[in-house]
Amino acid sequence: QVQLVESGGGLVQPGGSLRFSCVASGGTLRWASIGWFRQAPGKEREGVSCITSTGGSTNYADSVKGRFTISRDNSKNAVYLQMTGLKPGDTAVYYCNARFDLSIWTSDIYWGQGTQVTVSS
Questions:
Q1: Do residues 59 and 50 touch, judged by C-beta distance below 8 A?
Q2: Apex CA 56: angle with CA 70 and CA 111, to 5°?
Q3: Which phi and psi (to 5°) does residue 89 adopt?
Q4: Paired sense of beta strands 115-119 and 92-101, if any
Q5: Cβ atoms 42, 9 nearer than 8 A
Q6: 40 and 92 Cβ atoms separated by less than 8 Å
Q7: Which of 5, 16, 56, 82 is the S-S candidate for 69 at Cβ 3.0 to 4.6 Å?
Q8: pLDDT 10s per residue in the chain (121 long)?
């Protein structure tokens, strides 16, 4: 059973930066696609960024393009999200998600517990 633990959240002023880490235990992330999601109060969870198992392809929500960068270090069983130019609209609980494709029909999906980011002056 893979367990994901996020860290790096906190309170930051507008324009500031934060770096999230998502570290796995109980299994390797080497074969997983990883996504970062967020959920703001009163809103549905939304995808922020994702990266393929090899790190060869990344995607970003339009709202964070040019400000957030996702990366991974399979040797450390970790994925990172570097966030710059933070805005109040980025305030949310951020979640790490790992997806292991077992076949074209089924996947194992794991979620971290979430970490809070508050962007406020």
A1: yes
A2: 50
A3: -65, -10
A4: antiparallel
A5: no
A6: yes
A7: 82
A8: 899 999 998 999 999 999 999 999 999 999 999 999 999 999 999 999 999 988 789 999 999 999 999 999 999 999 999 999 999 999 999 999 999 988 888 999 999 999 999 999 9
